[in-house]
What does this fold into?
Amino acid sequence: MTTNRYGSIAAEIYDIDKPYFALADTAFHLERFQGFDRPILEPACGSGRTMIPFLQAGLDITGFDPSGEMLDRCRDRCAEAGFSPDLSRQGYADFAYDRRFGAILVPVGSFTLIDDFAAAMAVLRRFHAALEPGGVLVLDMQGLAYLASGTQDRRRWTAPGGDLLTCEGVRNVTDWFRQRAETIYRYERWRDHQLVESQIDVMAQRYWGLDEFRMALETAGFEGVSVVGNYDRSRGVRSSDRGWTFEAVKPFLSRAAGEGDRAP
Ligand SMILES: C[S@@+](CC[C@H](N)C(=O)[O-])C[C@H]1O[C@@H](n2cnc3c(N)ncnc32)[C@H](O)[C@@H]1O
It folds into this structure.
């Protein structure tokens, strides 16, 4: 599995580009978890875009992320908001806790950053093991159609201190066999018309079909899979949806081997 690095410029841009509540996912997930009284785990929590509104809503949320830059921003932003949640530097493949969670939330498509089918299945099993019996997994993702989408991405932002930040992404792999795309992002920082810093981050993603992911969840031991398109519960999923939100339950009587959740 490729580690998708979020370096310091990418992390800075992330917070400028995606302020709290700018994307539809946060309000949708807050509504879903309103009054939820069990601990929630957010894998790939990044800089806290989702976590901080959850903490402000009184929810008990823990996060991990492999990017030191994203985690530093998360810690600072949590502290500014008066919170000090359990944050740790871990990845999908080997995260570990000495307790289980009532829910796992993976917003905004971060699961697609697992670019290999077998690795993704292992992570779903790890999510299953990390949940209490009866716990729920809520996971957003972009659909397979993204594999066919644009191969060039050029954007710019002005940082609060006045620096010009630019990002140019060029897709260099589109692998339909493995449903995998790889994009090379070049980030630059310009000050007084001078290039002062540049970084390259490679982003590798695997995209899933709707029924394929439903079956993957069931294979990993989840039940009761439901799907919402474009954060709109008022209608069914559509092929034109930009994103899907899957919800699935870890049953009390677990089918997954070695789970030890069988009733006495
Ligand atoms: C799109 S950001 C999402 C951040 C946050 N969940 C949010 O809602 O804004 C994706 C995050 O995935 C993290 N990431 C990349 N590879 C990962 C891996 N192997 N395991 C866990 N997280 C990973 C990145 O460091 C980044 O912070």
